[in-house]
Design brief:
This protein is an alpha+beta fold and 60 residues long. Helix 1 links the parallel strand 1 and strand 2. The longest helix is centred in the middle third of the chain and has 19 residues. The protein is elongated and about 45 Å long. It starts with a strand and ends with a strand.
């Protein structure tokens, strides 16, 4: 049972649908597992809740 966790900033629900679909397809094709066994979790973080290069993304 593959489990994938994606951490990202907020996206539109349609983008997330497409992403989950394509990730699932990749696992099905590559690992030859049934789609029902692939779990994809999307964790979204607002810009004030993560940073890079010593600065909050909200401050960029």
């Amino acid at each position: 049972m593959p489990i994938v966790t994606i951490q990202q900033g907020p996206r539109e629900v349609e983008q997330k649908r497409e992403l989950v679909k394509r990730i699932t397809e990749a696992f099905v094709e590559t690992l030859e597992v049934p789609a029902e066994s692939v779990f994809v979790f999307v964790q979204e973080y607002q810009a004030e809740n993560w940073g890079a290069a010593g600065k909050l993304i909200a401050d960029r």
